[in-house]
Amino acid sequence: MADKHVNPSSPSAYQLLLQLEQQFDHLLETIETAVLLYEQQPLATWVFHQTKPSSDWLRKALFDMWHEQDQDGRETRNYIAVVAANDELLKAIGAVNQAKASFSELLQHIKQAFPQALSDAKSRLPQRHPHVDEVLRRNGLARLHLKQSWRQLPIAQAPVSRVRFAWYSSGRSIKRLSVQEAEHKLLQLDTDAPHIRIQLRKLAGIPSDEALAQVQTQAPLMRANLFFTEPLDDGHTRRALNAAMPIFVPDNNQRLPHINLPAQEPPTTRTRARRRDEKLEQDVFLPSLRVYRYR
Question: What Gene Ontology biological process does one annotation of this record name (predicted)?
């Protein structure tokens, strides 16, 4: 197990941070290469609710890796678009994804071994590029947004005839908790508050070995279904994916696939019917923790 109290100035931490800076430089270089390729040639492009995309829209999308002031760290900014890309651009976008993956792997390694060094790195990396640092500070951006830095750019592996976008508003993450873990979390709250005492009593009234579920509702997201012109070798005719970043599809004589126009804003209610076999009770058991019992 990694020692989380290792001095971040130790040789090992220093070497990892040096590698991180080099990989960050490489990531920015691959993005710049891809963006220049896009900007130097007319490529068919569709951008969500933009009749005529600005000339620098892709540059803004791919270089957006920074926290805005007061931004929730769990939130990411979306750039929903489709680009009909030639082989050269597809290869360049693939190189960006490889650089993102390498950068992410090293970040995760540093996070495990030297968490304090990672915190320092998120503030230091922008300073390696004075122009970037100046722009960031002028616009109230200061720290690297890890999720936005490593999220992959979707690439269709074969020609696409149709793209169907739709909002998905019923996503949620579920974490299993033991009764003991739930009790520990409640005890971290104000145990003098009547509503906390009520929840502690409810918890004491169920079997100690019962599994509970802590639910986190996820923000609405745009999903895309790509329908391939011809079935893939494995027989699949379509691919579903999250569409937070531009989707790059092989160009078809510089034409885009047919694309529907989804609503500009996500729906305020669930977009999918509640499953009849849903395993959680409908009513929350411990409201302060968003904890439910299984049926």
Answer: DNA replication termination
Q: What is the token pair recorded at 53?
A: 């995309």
Residues of the chain above pLDDT 90, percent:
47
The CATH number that applies at residue 204 is 3.30.54
Domain carrying residue 93: 11-156
Q: How far apart are CA 189 and CA 170, in angstroms?
A: 28
Domain identity same for 88 and 142: yes
In a shared domain, residues 32 and 108: yes
Residue 161 lies in a domain: no
Residues 143 and 178 in one domain: no
Q: Rounded to an integer, what distance in angstroms lies between the CA atom of residue 47 and that of residue 67?
A: 23
Structural domain count, the chain = 2
Residue reference for tokens 């502690």: 200
pTM for the model: 0.72
Rounded CA separation 259/277 (Å)? 34
Q: What are residue 57's DSSP bridge partners?
A: none
Does residue 225 fall inside a structural domain? no
**Under 8 Å between Cβ of 218 and 172:** yes
Which residue from 84, 109, 81, 104 is spatially nearest to 24, judged by alpha carbons?
104
At 250, the pLDDT band (50, 70, 90 cuts) reads: very high
Q: Bridge partners of 290? A: none
- In this predicted structure, the answer to whether residue 115 has a pLDDT above a threshold of 80 is no
